[in-house]
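Write out this protein's structure.
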Amino acid sequence: MGKYENYPTLRELLGHHVFTGSHVLGGENALDTPVAAVNLTDTPDYWDWVSPRELLITTCFAIRDDRTAQSVFIERLSELGLAGVCIKPSRFLGGMPECMVAAARERAFPLIELPPQVRFADITKAVSDELLRRKTAMLHNSISVNQMLLQTITAGATLRDLARSVREITGGSVLLVDSINGRQAYSLSEADAVRLSALDRDAICRTLSEEADAYEMRLDGHLFGTVCLCREEGWPPLHRDILSQLLQTIPLEISREHSVRKIESRSFTEFFQHLTSDRILDDSWEQTRANAFGLDLSAGHVLLELDLRDPGRYAGTFQRTAFFHALCQSLDRTGVDSHVMDQPGGCLILLSAKEDPEELKRALERLPSILESLRAAYPALEPTGGCSRSHAGIPGLSLCRWEAQLALRAARASGGGSFFPFERLGILRLLYAGDPQRETERFIAETLGELASSQLPHERELLETLDCYFRNLGNQRRMAQELYVHYNTVAYRLRSIQEITGLNLGDPAQRMQLELALYLRQVCAEDGRIPPRQGERT
């Protein structure tokens, strides 16, 4: 439509009550032609007084007796680019000439027969009023966009403020997708507010994205996000100049938010890397720095590392934004704080309890189901993740980083869309470790715990008992005979081993973990990495 896109179509005008009783005799498929003006004339030289996109209103008085002029009338109007012609034939033509009807149908040119009682003044007023209303609305929208621009620059309008302003301009529901900062904001029309009242925020955003016309906000080759506009019945289409202003105004708020977040994110990321990589000399000083980020270093933390596949273009941009928005909302509902650190292809998310340390434990328990539901909602992203256990203190952050990396490595090996909490790895941690020797030593220390400590009384006896347990396949009577102790002593020692390690010998997986840790410890002792205890079997 070009410059005529904000004008009413002939079909819309014919819906006005002033056209009641009118009949479309030809050109039904061209009724969506925009009408830029109305022209009321009955002069013989029609062609000198009409312009493209006008709607001509006439009685054809000047050509009432000229069959030749009547036969070329529709053809000439079509060639001049008129939107259509409305003829009241009853007074001077008696009826609509067949040559006009045939020409209108052949050329797909709108020909409307007006009833005898219609007044031309009423038609011209109705059409002129609608044109004026459209122009006034466009002027109002242009002023509103300029005010929005001023508010964005000087008053710090938020994305939600902009969504509301755009909805007031367009009349329909609006969804703004900020692909730079991972945000969404919407504003609903009255009708949609009722229609979508039963849906949650994420479902509303998905519905609007599916139903709306999407326009990318792209400046200087950079995609800032998407404006999703739902057309409201009775409202004129948004003029392309107004739309262009919107698509250039909203990125100002996105850029401002990105600058603020980028500074905060870079500062936090650098601080996190410092804590997990550098030698820490003064814990109290580091806590002072952490206070600026609302981070208690002495509390427990969990690190989640995510990879996301990039489907590309609009769908991928929207899904990635929606994914992070939904994830952060879900985590917030579990009662934990989250700090997001961007990295190529994904992100790191540090979780910490807001008040109650148990909140972190509950969040960890719910995390697999949260990620599974998001994976189902956004399958194109193939979210793959690894999650650490909870660790406290500055050394705990380094441990969180290492465990999350190891868990993610195992998830990648299992295929896109997998999620591995570190607890699920078991002995798989030895397979995916970047430093097998170091990981083996950690595995032994974590599994055997105080059993491998020289500070524990009767440590040698307990290790010997555990070794004997595996050699005799758990037969306690044969163990008592081999160890030269009473049967009850064997039972007591086995209970002590389970209490110290926190592992259950009756559970096949935990029993295998204990046996592997004991075997690896013996191997390491033979290599000289773990000195054998006096009297200990090797």
